[in-house]
Amino acid sequence: MAERESQIVLGLDPDPGALWPQAAEGSPGVRLSATASAVLAHSRALIDATAEACVAVKLQLARFEVLGADGRGVMGELADHARRLGLIVIADGKRGDIGVTAAAYASALFAGIDSPDGPVPGLGADLVTVNPLMGRDAVEPFILAARRQGGGVLVLVRTSNPGAADIEDLAIEGGGTVWERIAALVEELGRDGVGKRGVSDVGAVFGATAAEHLARARELMPHATFLLPGVGAQGGRVEELGPAFRPGRAGGLVSASRSISEAYRATGGPPERSAREEAERLREAAWSLAEEAVRAGA
Amino acid sequence: MAERESQIVLGLDPDPGALWPQAAEGSPGVRLSATASAVLAHSRALIDATAEACVAVKLQLARFEVLGADGRGVMGELADHARRLGLIVIADGKRGDIGVTAAAYASALFAGIDSPDGPVPGLGADLVTVNPLMGRDAVEPFILAARRQGGGVLVLVRTSNPGAADIEDLAIEGGGTVWERIAALVEELGRDGVGKRGVSDVGAVFGATAAEHLARARELMPHATFLLPGVGAQGGRVEELGPAFRPGRAGGLVSASRSISEAYRATGGPPERSAREEAERLREAAWSLAEEAVRAGA
């Protein structure tokens, strides 16, 4: 983050019905269906246009799984491409399952497996999102796998959608809410993974649309990096994310998808230019805010 | 179910390090890596051995995703194979995400999408498991997609693992637990999908290891089919699942994975025979239990 002066995560969430015009050229040299080839071309162009302003890409796994047999290949190409440009790769699959199954998901997204017939490589993600509904033993296998390769885990705590009110916001007997209980679990699971900068390898997904809860979330999770989705299309504003950065610049990753890729529909002109400008605008806003938060805390 | 006199779901959860001996022959005629080819051969043999005693197969998506680029192809082959044998296909991915993302997951698992470059087929599952932590709007897109093709959704309510105590069992202010709140949501979302037999297209995943809560779960969800995992290796017993069948034989689907595929390690002899015998034993136990529950309720 310090090197790139950025906390911006480019969300890769390609809708095959709303790709950039250059996607029509496809991805020569890669054996893929026409749709997968177009999605790959679009996503590569989007990464190339915005890489300088970003610190990470976030692959929305659903959008690639819907490409069928070619989906995993497209994800792999994009993860490699992003890494070559120095970007962190976040696999946003929100998985969560019991022990052996969680371990298999973690292997698929991180380092792969050694099978009797030889190694099967994983996606090579640096960070993965995890759903904690099933509890501690559904999250721990991801943390173990992450630690084996210096990666991390981002646990859903309070999401950016209206439905977050249905379960996550329920008040618990004895005080607090379901999300606050999950936050306590995140802090506990991350305790052994706090590095020398005071940031843990167990972080939290916290909707930028729930900025009113950010100060409380930071109190409960002093060591977690917050992945903050929901800026832009969902109504979240960078300017409200101050408390995320209280422990320092690495305290928050600001994720934006459609507000970057679709910027050209409002501004006109080439999509690359509008995307680059919007990513840079977000970068500048988040970086200044984090600087302020760090100065205020010092 | 009535036709096959079975409520048994064969869980396909293949561990590449513990396949049946015949997996070594691989799957001739299919272009796959050695590991994927072995997993496919094992899983096909397992389906063939037990199909007569079962009503459905349940694909544990993690185990196929860990096969990398070949994973989706193997899943597709197995779903087709199961369908040809008259089995229902359950995609157990426990997905859950906001609107557009949930819709993409649903398309990937059900019917696929129409992209500008032509249709991309989905897995063609009949039922999918869904994680409700993110609330109503994370579940609804799956229900919409299921209804378009006469399929259904199985929502995680109370899972079979020890970690279920961490979040699902939390007591809510004003009474009840998180899982009971989810159960109420399941019943509400399923109201429009209740068919003439009184069973809804919105069902529940309810761990067979939590049989002490089954009567309460049935009270809260009178119209839901319960998918009951955790029989066998995890300690659940068919004999304790009576309340699931109160609304009739379609009230419960009993899922077993390792207890079927690994039966031969205890009994000796060919794995097919032991798997068939264990599946048949479970079928008989569940069917008698359901008959009793139906008679008692009549």
Structure explained in plain terms:
Two copies of one chain form a homodimer. Chain A has helices at residues 34-50, 61-65, 71-84, 99-109, 136-148, 178-190, 214-220, 258-261, 263-267, 271-297, and strands at 8-12, 56-60, 88-95, 113-115, 118-120, 127-130, 152-158, 202-206, 226-228, 252-256. Chain A is an alpha/beta fold. In chain A, α4 (99-109) packs parallel to α5 (136-148). Chain A contains ten helices and ten strands. The mean pLDDT of chain A is 94. The first copy, chain A, has one domain (8-297): TIM Barrel (Alpha-Beta Barrel). In chain A, strands 1-2-3-6-7-8-9-10 form an eight-stranded parallel beta barrel, surrounded by six helices.
Blueprint of the fold:
2 copies of one chain form a homodimer.
Chain A: E1 8-12, H1 34-50, E2 56-60, H2 61-65, H3 71-84, E3 88-95, H4 99-109, E4 113-115, E5 118-120, E6 127-130, H5 136-148, E7 152-158, H6 178-190, E8 202-206, H7 214-220, E9 226-228, E10 252-256, H8 258-261, H9 263-267, H10 271-297
Parallel strand pairs in A: 1-2, 1-10, 2-3, 3-6, 6-7, 7-8, 8-9, 9-10
Antiparallel strand pairs in A: 4-5
Helix pairs in contact in A: 1-3, 1-10, 4-5
